[in-house]
Amino acid sequence: DARVTQTPRHKVTEMGQEVTMRCQPILGHNTVFWYRQTMMQGLELLAYFRNRAPLDDSGMPKDRFSAEMPDATLATLKIQPSEPRDSAVYFCASGPGTGLSSPLHFGNGTRLTVT
Amino acid sequence: QKEVEQDPGPLSVPEGAIVSLNCTYSNSAFQYFMWYRQYSRKGPELLMYTYSSGNKEDGRFTAQVDKSSKYISLFIRDSQPSDSATYLCAMGTGGGATNKLIFGTGTLLAVQP
């Protein structure tokens, strides 16, 4: 059963430290999304890629967040420097990118706590 | 105002009850609509999807879309304790290349045995 894999599952760090989250999309999927989930805001889209090219990162604080896809099997989301308000669960999702019959498949998230 | 509004609940029902979950939205360009289920400490998983207005049924689940009212619903019949989860509605403006979805904040459902 193909699935999106995210690492680490949990991360606790101090304010100011760099955080890198990784995602392995489902093989063959050409769209990759990063979402952030908090109790107050729900799921917020941070950035997404198609065929490894960034299509939209308008949901991401540009001064501290960066997202990349070094290759088709790896997507990364980096926060530098991290702040307590970044504490949330970060989800990666992938999809075949071919429309209605291709739902997004989510990983189980990285739970980030910044103290 | 958010593009998608969803009552966060929590909603508690006895086993066997009919559950109604709802979302409203403001963007008339939304064309396809999905419901995701999220168990605690897991990622969301797709439950139902519909295109434009109408109903879709899958087992105990029925999704309804009323584009004229900008209102979507998910009904769960004969609810089970295993249905206890957070239910998220999601919407997009079109299929094709992007699959960009906007999510509601989720409704927490507890089905009591």
Structure description:
The complex is a heterodimer of chains A (115) and B (113). Chain A is mainly beta. Chain A has no helices and eleven strands. Chain A has strands spanning 5-7, 10-13, 19-24, 31-38, 42-50, 53-56, 65-71, 74-79, 88-95, 105-106, 110-114. In chain A, the strands form two sheets. In chain A, strands 2, 4, 5, 6, 9, 10 and 11 form a seven-stranded mixed β-sheet that branches. A four-stranded antiparallel β-sheet of chain A has the order 1-3-8-7, with no helix packed on it. In chain A, strand 4 and strand 5 form a beta hairpin. Chain A is globular and about 35 Å long. Chain B has 113 residues and is mainly beta. Chain B has strands at residues 4-6, 11-14, 19-25, 32-38, 45-51, 54-58, 61-66, 71-76, 85-92, 102-103, 107-112. In chain B, the strands form two sheets. In chain B, strands 2, 4, 5, 9, 10 and 11 form a six-stranded mixed β-sheet that branches. Chain B has a five-stranded antiparallel β-sheet with strand order 1-3-8-7-6, with no helix packed on it. Chain B is globular and about 40 Å long.
